[in-house]
Amino acid sequence: MSINRRYLELLAPAKNVQAGKIAIDCGADAVYIGAPQFGARQAAGNTLGDIHELCTYAHRFGARVYVTVNTLVYDEEMQALDQLLNGLAAAETDAVLVQDMAVLERLRHFPQIEAHASTQADCRTAEKAAWLHAQGFQRVVLARELCLDEIRQIAKSVPCVELEAFVHGALCVSYSGQCYASQYCFQRSANRGECAQFCRMKFDLLDANGTEIVHQRHLLSLRDMCRVDDIEALAAAGVTSFKIEGRLKDETYVANTVAVYRQKIDQLIAQNPAQYARASIGKSKYAFKPDLQKIFNRGYTDYFMHRRTNDIHSFYTPKAIGEKVGVVKEIHKEMLIVAGTTAFTNGDGLCFFNPQRELEGFRVNRADKNRLYPHHMPENLKVGTPLFRNAHAQKDGKINAQSAQRRIAIDMLLDISGNELQLTMKLAETAISTTGTMPIDGQKARIPQHDNMVAQLKRLGDTEFAANSIQISDRAQELFVPSSQLGELRRITATRLRDALRQHWKEQRRKPTPQTDKDIPPAQANPKIYGQYTYLYNIANQDAARFYRRQGLSTFQPAFERQPAPKKPVLLMQCRHCLRYSLGFCKKNGGKHPTWQEPLSLRLGDGRLFQLQFDCRQCQMNIFSSF
Fold first, then answer.
1. C or N terminus of the chain, fewer CB within 10 Å?
2. What is the pLDDT averaged over residues 31-37?
């Protein structure tokens, strides 16, 4: 193997231990899961016992488990944080995702656990990546908004840090960790795992005179990310880990996304065996056909992967639309006819945009080719309306633990050594092997035993192993060995192989030296990057405050969540999504000259206003509270 061979990791979400096991079975090299506390998805917490169970299962395949401890932590919660980290270490957690620097400080006492800088840590530049790595992070999760050139520059400038990039799933319109709209409007902090999804709401767009430019649209709602066609480009740019979003999603979503991206990454590795390798072992077989169209999605976008395009937003609905299946050709009293080639099924869920551009849906009670009989005929459905299918009764089968199997290929040799029957099992993908023995009486068989012995040794169904090859020595196949003894020898040897493999993965885990305050290197990049908005550092406790003071940040505001209600306009969001551009009025990119008078504002249904600021130098739209 080339020493320059780079391991590529497929990282999957898990809302619970069952989803995590399904992700592993479908081919994930790692999963990330929420802890009982301090995870950025408050509704996706898990017990330490469940996390330990998932770690044990994943480690069989050399797969890893990362736990999200990526919210802000308050001073009064530090004792609970210490107890949690102790529990995660005991559960053999491989890494913890971190936003709050107080968590990083405490992780220094657990050198067996890697620290990964969560996307909530807001890493957009090579300077920030270098600074995070200097503080002890082995891996940095990049901002979703970065394009290929920006990722490539970070990898080139900071080759010593692993880069993790999102490739699939729901998108936040604001840079992660820098959104305070939910806290401001509803006292639910996105940095505490309580996001109220402000960006999925309806807004009016107003000019400086209060004139309405756009009425009641989901102006901040984005489509879902899909970069399945960019895996090769991302790997070439320096990405190590390909991350799927979705810790609140069900097993069907997890299984489909993991299976699709597994196949894509395996194809890339097979085409470039001297350059890339897989980060875990075991091959998955699926009892379903992986399909990204049959899972929840708001329409797909590669989201700035190839710089700015106008296909990232979903102004008309934040809900799943599904695939286009045809156009309404005729409407009768109880039946409609669809023009197109799609095959429909009883129970399909269809949707359409009505004349007010609102999404409506209906269920097909009976389908006769392209003649559909809805349960209730939608009143707003018109001839010529495009139809979409967001629920496919035939395809949307429930994914369960039997939907995929992952097995590690082994080679077996049955032989005689003295008065013992000897079975050697060797992993086909590594040099790891182990041998089990059993005393025998040397009784000769009346008929050749080769086929029976092979049949018994192949019965590995209750393990993670599958026979790649089975060799029976001439001496062994001449003996009569009861099937029960062969089965017992197979079980003994498989258990030893599992133990040997587990020990191998333990030895492979990184064991950096614990750090003390004086061991921490100075910053490689000045942390003073947020100017007057020092609450953007998200300093919510005394430990984080001391950390930043050591970095040279002498004065700062506490985290937004720890401040009283603001009495002047404050920065709530920083977005690469730009309404000027999306509406066709970006002069920098060849758009029309605006016909309105700025500043523009967004207005919620309850009348609250939010002022927009366009920072064209940064190619960024900022959203402020208004008074």
1. N
2. 95
17-25 vs 251-271: helix axis angle to the nearest 10?
30
Task: Name the more confident of 240 and 295.
Answer: 240
Q: Is 446 helix (H, G, I), strand (E, B) or coil?
A: coil
Selection from 175, 155, 157 nearest residue 240 by Cα: 155
Is the sign of the CA dihedral 462, 465, 469, 475 positive or negative?
negative
Distance CA 410, CA 408 (A): 6
Closest CA to 560 of 595, 533, 587, 579: 533
Phi-psi region of 326 (alpha: psi -120 to 50; beta: other; left: phi over 0): left
- Place 137 in a pLDDT band, splitting at 50, 70 and 90: very high
Supply the pLDDT for residue 431: 84
Report the largest interatomic distance among the alpha carbons of the chain, rounded to a whole angstrom. 100
The answer to whether 182 and 189 have CB atoms below 8 angstroms apart is yes
**Is the distance from CB of 115 to CB of 95 less than 8 angstroms?**
yes
Residue 5 is encoded by which pair of tokens?
């061979």
Q: Virtual CA dihedral for 141, 142, 144, 150, nearest 10 degrees?
A: -160
DSSP 325-363: EEEEEEE-SS-EEEESSPPP-TT-EEEEE-TTS-EEEEE
CA distance 102 to 95: 16
The residues near 281 (Cβ < 8 Å, ≥ 6 apart) are 61, 62, 408, 427, 429, 430
Q: Judging by DSSP bridges, how do beta strands 371-374 and 162-169 pair with one another?
A: unpaired
Residues in the chain: 627
Beta strands in 111-234 (DSSP E): 114-117, 139-141, 162-169, 203-206, 212-217, 224-226
Judged by DSSP in three states, 61 sits in: coil
CB atoms within 10 A of CB 404: 24
Provide mean pLDDT across the span 610-625: 96
What's the pLDDT tens digit per position in 68-83? 999 999 999 999 999 9
**The pair of three-digit structure tokens given for residue 622, joined into one six-digit string:** 């900022």
Angle at 558 between CA 554 and CA 564, to 5 degrees: 140
Q: Which residues 6+ apart lie within 8 Å of 575 measured at CB?
A: 173, 174, 175, 220, 620, 621, 622, 623
